[in-house]
Design a protein that fits this description.
Helices cover 45% and strands 13% of the residues. The chain is of the alpha/beta class. The protein has a 5-stranded parallel sheet with strand order 2-3-1-4-7, sandwiched between helices. A two-stranded antiparallel sheet has the order 5-6.
Length: 228
């Protein structure tokens, strides 16, 4: 089983992907994680990727797909796979279909986490993180006990540069331009995306995700908000 998670920045794709990984044992495939691991382990693909990054260039789709192909080939053929944050563009989606076909797989289901832009801006711009221990807070919904300080370790909280309101809106514009067309791509190829309202509590979204995927799980675990 191969599932694609679609949705704008801040709608909760990362959080829900982690829940599925921890709760039902799906393999969470994040191209960012694959890229970091390849660079850390100094693999051939990692060195190729580093050469592009050192030159200030984006890692090309072909190389990202090579990382995906290599990783999927190492998995149990019966493993259920969840892609979060990839593909992001039509060419990536088309190429991923080709890689999956090579490996005897296919995209079986697509799930779209949907959310109003204003709510997503509020969610992301309110996010604060601890540079010391990695704890994540939100000034609107889950603030620290002392403003600006981490409850766990007392360090000063920071706002990521890409969580500033203007930057968030630009990220949403890029999503609407490049990634949102994937909804039509999968619909036209007979893989109609199931839609879940991402502007709910984490538990409510998780229950809706499970129902959309045809699962029934009584106990819903807690996890830190990632917002992606």
């Amino acid at each position: 089983m191969t599932t694609i998670f679609l949705g704008a920045p801040g709608v909760g794709k990362g959080t829900q992907a982690v829940l599925l990984r921890e709760h039902v044992g799906w393999v969470h495939v994040s191209t960012g994680d694959l890229l970091r691991a390849a660079r850390r382990d100094d693999t051939k693909l990692g060195r190729r990727a580093q050469s592009f990054m050192d030159a200030g260039d984006l890692v090309p789709d072909e190389l990202i797909l090579d990382l995906v192909r290599e990783h999927l080939a190492s998995l149990d053929p019966g493993a259920s796979i969840l892609f979060d944050g990839f593909p992001r563009t039509l060419p990536q989606a088309e190429a991923l279909d080709g890689v999956l076909e090579e490996l005897g797989r296919q995209v079986n289901q697509v799930l779209l986490l949907d959310g109003d832009d204003d709510e997503l801006v509020k969610r992301l711009s309110g996010r604060r993180s601890c540079p010391n221990c990695g704890a994540v807070y939100n000034v609107h919904w889950s603030p620290p006990e002392e403003e600006g300080r981490c409850d766990r370790c007392g360090a000063d909280l920071v706002q990521r540069e890409d969580d500033a309101p203007d930057t968030v809106r630009r990220r949403l514009d890029v999503y609407r331009e490049l990634t949102e067309p994937l909804i039509g791509f999968y619909r036209e190829s007979g893989r109609e995306p199931a839609v879940v309202d991402g502007i709910q509590s984490m538990e409510e979204v998780h229950q809706a995700v499970l129902e959309s995927l045809g699962m029934e799980v009584d106990c819903i675990p807690k996890t830190a908000e990632t917002g992606e």
